[in-house]
């Protein structure tokens, strides 16, 4: 059965908080401290959020490499090398580049962003997400089975 994906579009001007469930949803943009960025997927949102934070304080971001809060059982979430990552995203600048694990679900990206913001002492309410689509109804058969 083919689907008309237009019917899953949502109001991309309505802000969403980091406390919501983003499973089956697609991002349109985010705003952090009055600065907005359009993104087409969760990976891009994570990348742009990290770049924004690196611009604020690169040394603080550097400390996350050795912070246990950013290490999983088998992989690092922030590093200077890609050895312990499944799908690294390059962030930072040419002088100092970092890698962030990109093989994450929407909600795992949100959890990582929340952790980063808290380490930067940024109020989570200063981060707003705008969505372009919600495919929850499309996946209800899966949820119900």
Q: Overview of this structure, please?
A:
This protein has 4 helices and 7 strands. It is an alpha+beta fold and 145 residues long. The protein has a 4-stranded antiparallel beta sheet with strand order 1-7-2-3, covered by helices on one side. A 3-stranded antiparallel beta sheet has the order 4-6-5, covered by helices on one side. The radius of gyration is 16 Å and the shape is globular.
Core attributes:
alpha+beta, 4 helices, 145 residues
Strand order of the largest sheet: 1-7-2-3
Order of helices and strands: EEEHHEEEHEH
Radius of gyration: 16 Å
Q: How many β-strand stretches?
A: 7
Short summary of the structure?
The protein is an alpha+beta fold and 145 residues long. Helix content is 28%, strand content 23%.
Record the SSE blueprint.
Blueprint: E1 15-16, E2 25-32, E3 35-38, H1 42-56, H2 58-63, E4 78-79, E5 88-92, E6 97-101, H3 106-119, E7 127-134, H4 140-144
Antiparallel strand pairs: 1-7, 2-3, 2-7, 4-6, 5-6
Helix pairs in contact: 1-3
